Amino acid sequence: MGKSKVLVVGGTGYLGRRIVRASLAQGHPTYVLQRPEIGLDVDKLEMLLGFKKQGAHLVEGSFSDFQSLVDAVKLVDVVICPMSGAHNRSHNILMQLKLVQVIKEAGNIKRFLPSEFGFDPARMGHALEPGRVTFDEKMIVRKAIQDAKIPFTYVCGAAFASYFAGNLSQMGTLFPPKEKVLIYGDGNAKVTILEEDDIAAYTIKTIDDPRTLNKTLYLRPPENELSQKQLVETWENLIGKNLEHISISEQDFLASMKGMDFAGQVGVGHFYHMFYEGALTNFEIGEEGEEASKLYPEVKYTRMDEYLKLYT
Ligand code: NDP
Ligand code: GO6
């Protein structure tokens, strides 16, 4: 069996560009949607041309032209859609409902990976407003996929290292604090953090794997399942200095949502579920899922002690 052909919708995005590169690196004929809506965004142009240089095919298409998407989808076997999440109010996740109709109409797709890549929305029915919109919308897309009987894999479970590791999980910054670090509660809830290139590598590994057909692939490699305390300790060992730890209670942290803009409120909710509830790790993977590092031990994922060296 040859390597399946892949279309990436959202290929110039933060995760999307890594998915394109991983697809090429793992030898898949790779197609990237080229949207006229990017206008004069030269950063996106540069990325698209870079993909082309590396052997990807650019396919013109627009969400406002149904047939253009059907034609694009008909070129491939697998569609991956790392479309942006709902950290603004633009509801991009629900745009995938159109893509679901397109894939149904095209009728040739062997696997669809919608935009997931974080909390498992099926376990977030209790999530706080307004952050829950992300999960609610991802569940609406899941239902449409399953109603249309489209073969799928949902890739879930890990937090992106850039948002959660380099900053020692501090909100509002991407760099490590110098003197004081805010610790969420006792700092013992376990959080799975992965470098984004590793998330992309696992994502591509799974597209031709019958073991993850119509299942959730959980990205939970055991060595990257760390508490915030362990993450901070790893950093302190690297720099040879201890930071001042300041614990913030659940109540005070949630109260900090007041007065924040929409993205900030979404963020506080998500941090709360991760660091007080342990929502990424507080369950066993059942029949509905598989764990990525078990299925693909050949992926040499980056450990956080190694990752954090970049920030010293
Ligand atoms: P980005 O914000 O980088 O956006 C990805 C792509 O979405 C864009 O490049 C663009 O595609 C496409 N897009 C945005 N708006 C539109 C539109 N109106 N019409 C068509 N396409 C549009 O996404 P991320 O990489 O940050 O997020 C991808 C997924 O990962 C989301 O589901 C998000 O929730 C999740 N996530 C998880 C995190 C974690 O810690 N686990 C952290 C951050 C995100 P194009 O390339 O065609 O321009
Ligand atoms: C990451 C963030 C970081 C918000 C997920 C505010 C979806 C997920 C772990 O966009 O809101 O500072 O799973 O000040 O399923 C944002 C979101 C994190 C980044 C969460 C996310 C994680 C989205 C901030 C901040 C570093």
From TrEMBL:
Pfam families (UniProt xref): NmrA
GO process annotations (BP): lignan biosynthetic process
InterPro entries, sorted: NAD(P)-bd_dom_sf, NmrA-like, NmrA-type/Isoflavone_red_sf, PCBER-like
NmrA-like domain mapped to chain residues: 3-308
Keyword terms of this UniProt record: NADP, Oxidoreductase
Family under the similarity heading: Belongs to the NmrA-type oxidoreductase family. Isoflavone reductase subfamily.
Name assigned to this protein: NmrA-like domain-containing protein
Entry keyword Oxidoreductase: yes
Domain of life of the source: Eukaryota
Molecular function, one GO term: pinoresinol reductase activity
Coiled coil (residue ranges): none
Organism per entry: Prunus dulcis (Almond)
